[in-house]
Structures are given as structure tokens and as C-alpha cells.
Amino acid sequence: MIVHIEKCHKCGACVGSCPQNAIYLNDVMLEFNENCNRCGRCVKICPVGAIEMEGKK
């Protein structure tokens, strides 16, 4: 996953949408752990389009 930190408002919508608990919000940006299965829920729920799946636009 690619996070565009300049767009991210740190609202946490993506964190709550992840069924794998793979997203963490820290002071600087979002982080994804090894549990991420690239389901794309976080991409769809982000209200500002800050998350992008690698290789897809």
C-alpha cells in the first residue's frame, strides 16, 4: 500500500475498516503490518484518497 501523507488527515477511518487489524496510525503517518492482505477496504473508505494500492491508480 502507498500512503500519500500530504493528503492524509489522520481521521482513522481506514484503521476501523481493516478486518485484519493491519493498519496503525502514528504521529507521522499510517503504517501497515504483515497482516495486510491487500483487500482494498482502506482504499475505498479513505475520504481524501490518501491510500493507493501499489501498482493500481
Which tags fit this structure?
two-stranded antiparallel ribbon, globular, alpha+beta, Alpha-Beta Plaits, 18% helix, 2 helices, 57 residues
Examine the secondary-structure arrangement and name the CATH architecture. Answer: 2-Layer Sandwich
Mean pLDDT over the residues: 89
The CATH topology name reads: Alpha-Beta Plaits
How large a portion of the residues is in β-strands, by DSSP E? Answer: 15-25%
| Largest sheet composition | 2 strands, antiparallel
The top-level CATH class is Alpha Beta
* Overall number of structural domains: 1
Would you write up a description of this structure?
With 57 residues, this protein is α+β, with helices and mostly antiparallel strands. The chain has one domain: 2-Layer Sandwich (Alpha-Beta Plaits). It contains two helices and four strands. The strands form two sheets. The protein has a two-stranded antiparallel ribbon with strand order 1-4. Strands 2-3 form a two-stranded antiparallel sheet. The longest helix has 5 residues. The chain is globular and about 25 Å long. The mean pLDDT is 89.
